[in-house]
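Please produce the structure of this protein holding NAP.
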Amino acid sequence: MPDTNVLAHREAPGPVKTTDAIVIGAGISGMFMLYRLRELGLSTQVFEAGTNVGGTWYWNRYPGARFDSESWTYGYSFSKELLQEWDWKEHFSPQPDTLEYLNHVADKFDLRRDIQFRSTVTAAHWDDAANEWTVTLESGQQAKSRLLLTAIGILSAYTLPAIPGRDSFQGPAYHPARWPHTPVDFTGKRVGIIGTGATAIQAIPEIAKQAAQLTVFQRRPNWAAPLHNAKISKEEMQQIKARYDEIYAHCAQTPSWFIHEADKRKTLDVSPEEREAFWEKLYAEPGFGIWMGNFRDILIDEKANEKISAFIAGKIRQRVKDPAIAEKLIPKDHGFGARRVPLESGYFEAYNRDNVTLVDVIHDEPIECITPKGVKTTKQEREFDILIYATGFDGVTGAFDRIDIRGPNGLALKDAWADGPRTYLGMLPEGFPNMLMALGPHTARGNIPQAIEHSVNFQAGLLKFMQEHGYTRIETRPECVDEWTETVIKAAEPLLSSKVDSWQTGVNRNVEGRQVRRVLGYNGNGVHFRRKTDEVTTGGFKEFVFR
Ligand code: NAP
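Below is the modeled complex.
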């Protein structure tokens, strides 16, 4: 499968430049890191694989790509001016608008002058004697810095299906995370799509409108609920702008930093009628309310979860006309919310169209191989003009594994994390001096840009502290890493999501060695996380060793 042709021209190796900091990635995290590092007066080089800023929103240009977080909680909040000058057009912003927003941010703060594009980092090695990192790019170019900051995202290491013959298909084949920059025309085409995760659930209704035939190869169905997107009028945007302080303050006080917050009641404490009415209301509302604003026990109590799963299954049966197809679309191996809930716009109705076919590759037609003409199942060879591998990502640690990161004595980060990540707050890995991570494993995530802002602000505070004290080296303390790792693992224990295979539990059957579940994020309350990080800051960062 071809990568996007934008990567064809790479920088030739130049002289080794040394700066105070190197940031890997120019998505939401890397851009904000650069902004904060500049404020601290630290010279910085940012290396970005793409040709422009945006990260996730630069790469994922597939039809239907959009937020399922409210746009007006997704922007950076660090600049009031930026908040006031940007008008979101839709409650759940489509990818082109989000990319435009991030380009606007890059322009406004003149970020691009420190970003080198078309620059994939392949290695980062710590030199203990020199107290600095040497970073190597795919081109062979090298750069050095005292600080290494990773801003490589949790869902950037995309994975193709491990199906025999995958590369033999003669037509165009795309992974949504490497979607072409010129729109793909599906008119009159026979299209096959493998995968039914959040990406496919957004793309399928859009592609179905254009393609002659769309065949969806489903391994395990996912629970999904309506997004209910709508345009934002000028007046509404003015009201939102007037409330930004309140909106961000509210999000900071919720467990996942969204506007949504779990209902205090338990599922079985209310009457079936009241429950039903509450769920009808949530199902009709925009956004993640049905997942995050639901009864407080639906994600931890199996009995409660069975009830909400039955409710959502009922909705799928109502929306899909063919009862046999509806049954295939209802997950049986996990309950509602135990995997990240995709929000959809007409996903289930897509299966009512004559030009859409659902193929259940577990129970009906297992895929044997990809052929030059299409997909061969145990029953037939299905021919296509275009194939889409919407097969997901090697989540969270995958992007780290793709870089040869080595600490003192040549220890590889991949090996250090073989039995699970070891970090403090998910921000500094154990045993890798002067390395800071945005959205690293074991950190709090929830509403991603808010998580990024919080952790970058924390890290900027940490670097300022080092400057003030003349420190040039920071490392974690083993006892603090032990404590944090235990906290993270404990927080995951009661969750039904911990008992299910998904990218969130680190399982990806297309990647060797990714069959065992791991805890990859801090699933505790975001409010506790904020408190903890604030305590570390006000306590003078005693949890770290400085030199
Ligand atoms: P995903 O949720 O991991 O889904 C991948 C899909 O591909 C699954 O249905 C998987 O089946 C299937 N698959 C993988 N390998 C296969 C194979 N060899 N044969 C057949 N099927 C195969 O990935 P995603 O849809 O890209 O979404 C990942 C995450 O990105 C989401 O959970 C979300 O956090 C984020 N995302 C966010 C947005 C948004 O903000 N709106 C949009 C898109 C994605 P199994 O389930 O059986 O493994």
